[in-house]
Design brief:
This protein is mainly α and 180 residues long. It has helices spanning 3-15, 32-43, 57-65, 79-91, 97-111, 113-135, 152-175. It is built from seven helices and no strands. The radius of gyration is 17 Å and the shape is globular.
């Protein structure tokens, strides 16, 4: 397979990515192993280096200690925990943990947790589609939009994550190309 074809195939896979909305997250509480496995399944395409762990038990424990997520109840994690862990796992790729915490907290205060999480999912998918379109050499439909100030950090983070993922995949493919 030619390298450009590999990139186009990967872009097509990622374009179809659907992050689970609040209502699609598990209703039943989960144990730590189940949470880590579920998030790896949801976000597998986000991590190019499969050797790199996107989420570990110790990371989750640290997020609880840092009060990024609430402590589990009887060692079980709720839908709220899963939503927060998905957002943290994605956003920490481009901003600090403190910025992730502050950004999530601010948006949730204004609009509520469910809205903020669903908005994160929508923005992440839109940013990926836009960057992947560029990666495939397609023209963008340029529309100027006014972004509400409180939504600006999340929108820009989503774009940064999308760019980072595409850069990593492109470099990975190019590193396997023969030298001229």
């Amino acid at each position: 397979m030619k390298h450009n074809e590999e990139m186009i195939e990967w872009c097509s896979q990622l374009e179809s990515l659907h992050l689970p909305r609040w209502s699609e997250l598990p209703v039943l509480d989960l144990y730590m192993d189940q949470v880590v496995t579920l998030i790896e399944r949801y976000l597998g395409l986000f991590f190019i280096d499969k050797q790199e762990k996107m989420l570990t038990k110790s990371m989750v424990n640290n997020y609880v200690k840092l009060q990024l997520i609430p402590a589990p109840v009887k060692k079980q994690y709720s839908r709220r925990h899963v939503a927060l862990l998905i957002a943290i796992t994605v956003l920490k790729q481009v901003v600090t943990i403190k910025e992730v915490k502050d950004g999530i907290t601010n948006l949730a205060k204004i609009h509520g947790e469910k809205w903020a999480y669903n908005y994160f999912c929508e923005e992440m998918e839109l940013a990926l589609k836009r960057v992947l379109k560029q990666a495939k050499g397609e023209m963008l439909d340029e529309k100027t939009e006014t972004i509400p100030f409180e939504e600006l950090p999340l929108k820009l983070c989503a774009q940064a994550v999308a760019c980072k993922i595409v850069v990593e995949k492109t470099v990975q493919i190019q590193s396997r190309m023969p030298l001229k």
